[in-house]
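Budget justification note: compute hours in this period were largely spent on complex prediction jobs such as the one shown. Inputs:
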Amino acid sequence: MPSAPRWRRRSDARPQELLDAALETFVERGYAATNMDEIARRAGVSKGTLYLYYPGKAELLKAVVRQSLLGNLAEAQTQASAHSGTFGELLNYFLGEFTRRISRTNISGIPKLILAESGNFPEIAQFYFEEVIQRARTLITDILRQGIACGEFRPVDPDYAWRMIVAPLVLGVLWKHTFLPFEPDGLDFDRYLDCQLDMLAHGLVASETPAGRNTP
Amino acid sequence: MPSAPRWRRRSDARPQELLDAALETFVERGYAATNMDEIARRAGVSKGTLYLYYPGKAELLKAVVRQSLLGNLAEAQTQASAHSGTFGELLNYFLGEFTRRISRTNISGIPKLILAESGNFPEIAQFYFEEVIQRARTLITDILRQGIACGEFRPVDPDYAWRMIVAPLVLGVLWKHTFLPFEPDGLDFDRYLDCQLDMLAHGLVASETPAGRNTP
Amino acid sequence: MPSAPRWRRRSDARPQELLDAALETFVERGYAATNMDEIARRAGVSKGTLYLYYPGKAELLKAVVRQSLLGNLAEAQTQASAHSGTFGELLNYFLGEFTRRISRTNISGIPKLILAESGNFPEIAQFYFEEVIQRARTLITDILRQGIACGEFRPVDPDYAWRMIVAPLVLGVLWKHTFLPFEPDGLDFDRYLDCQLDMLAHGLVASETPAGRNTP
Amino acid sequence: MPSAPRWRRRSDARPQELLDAALETFVERGYAATNMDEIARRAGVSKGTLYLYYPGKAELLKAVVRQSLLGNLAEAQTQASAHSGTFGELLNYFLGEFTRRISRTNISGIPKLILAESGNFPEIAQFYFEEVIQRARTLITDILRQGIACGEFRPVDPDYAWRMIVAPLVLGVLWKHTFLPFEPDGLDFDRYLDCQLDMLAHGLVASETPAGRNTP
DNA sequence: TATGAATGAGAGTTCATTCAT
DNA sequence: TATGAATGAACTCTCATTCAT
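Corresponding output:
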């Protein structure tokens, strides 16, 4: 078992350190209000050094977005193809997984950042749209279609229903980064997830049939 | 014979024209990337004129937000108190009304703007939180609680369920202003609403009882 | 005895009202920090009206200076030619008169204004130099020369001595408008004058002759 | 073969160069009429460089004043405590020293600047009042009191007499920076000093005693 | 004569980017 | 590779001046 190396060439860790500092700052302040000095300071390097690794502020933002998303995407894809159980269980699994990430990491700031800057960085918005959203859409509509086909799900409109499934996640992200400071009671993501799963499965309307049912 | 006058006095219509131009530009570009010159140009006035009506860029943003919201708020409040029919019908009514506004007016850019700039303008975020979100929350949780009490709704968790109801609206707003340009098929808000109402009412899971129903 | 007229055509009093407001503001704030809006407001007219009477800010300053000085100058000239008594008495009279004006009116702000703006308004400085300073110089050096000739004064260097006589007046003006707010005890102009006259007459050094005297 | 570099690093000399350029410009134009571009141009740097060293125009002015005065103050204090000879000689020494500085260096522009801007920068005026004027007052009144006590000086009013002693210096400063350009014969500071010392010592009035006396 | 809305040049300041070291 | 002093364009905001009313 190798012990930790006694030293590392700085440059190996550098790009990642810079991206981390940039992510943090962009998420905290927004793109325009972030200045390169601050990123450099947080990364513990000089401003000039940033430009050795990234050609400019805009490119730095893109790099931040790209690398923040790509890891998560690959992972999700893998898990999807290796599932077992009902489609409802798979859906629950994804929603739970996602909710947990929102509540724990600050990568959740990225989507908000993209929304905010989509007007000024259409390429980033498009990149996000194609790489993240379209994949999520495919993933979920596939599940829906199969679930409907096998009678597990009601015959909803998959091309629009996937947005209803995703919407609470998006709201959660935004809430965490926008209104949480103003809520004295905070937000309980476990309860949030429970409520979402319950409503997603059974809807709001009390059915005439006496028997209640459980999670999808 | 004098040529066209260099400017013309428009004093009555001016403030609203300026707000319109500002709303448009802020929504399109975001706060930081918007410059006063551009707003002035769109409003057909000189830069200095803006400062005759609003003391600065930040105040202009606040004025835009304030006046965009206040009108809508008053209206919603009025309609709420004058409803008849089941709670499900009332909910449907609100969601429909809201969806129609998203799809037709460009006031829907305001919420996105607020989300984007909440970090830099906490006061605006707080204003929005208190004036808009808290009211919506009260409105919806009241409906939910009453609907549950009278057996119309399943016993969901109202303090969180209201967010599930609102989430698709928020997503719709963001979608319109962020990803619509990238979608070749556009977005059909009628279908969007139908899907939302259906899922909200009955959920995703097929009930064991053979008979399906349609209205929430 | 005529009673006050029931009305006056506004325009008769206007120019003087404007000059008064301008003097007050220029003295208080300095030329650059004074804006036309403020002058107009103090004069109770609109900004545009200022331009009906004076072609611009610089011209307004010149008009203020000119009219503030001309009156005083004429007066001084008259009194000088109609004096009687020793030259020492004449000198005392002028110094007293001037000191009284410094202490009572706020015209004393004009010299400070001129000093401050001499770099930006050489014409005003030159005007002041020729109309005020050179006259004062002539007046005083004449008195000195005659006083020396008749044995009343010691044989001082009149071309420079006149400045020593004037210096305390200048200092008094500046003091009043610059440092007075910082002095808890204020400034007693009577004592100031007494001290000046005493020192001007007899100097600082105790003479070997036992008898002291008091008037110059 | 590279052409001349766009800029050169001068970091050590820079701050002083900037202060020099600023002093020159402020004295020439006054605070408000001085713009940062001009200072930068005179210092041979770009406008942005100024802001690397001083946070703004106002702070730059304060820095100019502070550093111009502090050196001179310390020096004067030192000399005062190490004097020998009569009090009259000490007074003469100071007046001579001061006059020489007025005539040779352009630091003499600082007092004029302070007078001119005292309305807009009360802090600077107060700083000057406390650090410069109050010290000078103490210095001179102490000398006067001691001189009077030992019979060297006539019993003048020290709290006001010190202003009479200082007044010609102030006038000299103002003269140099305000009216000198208009005087064809210029100003001979040696003669100015001689005249001041002579009048300060013996006053204007010819004493009845036949014997003349010498310098204080 | 009087107004005050409108103008637009110019101010101080910021900051992404460059480059001599 | 790393630095950070230097740059200069772009920004917000001010205000003397103009002119339709």
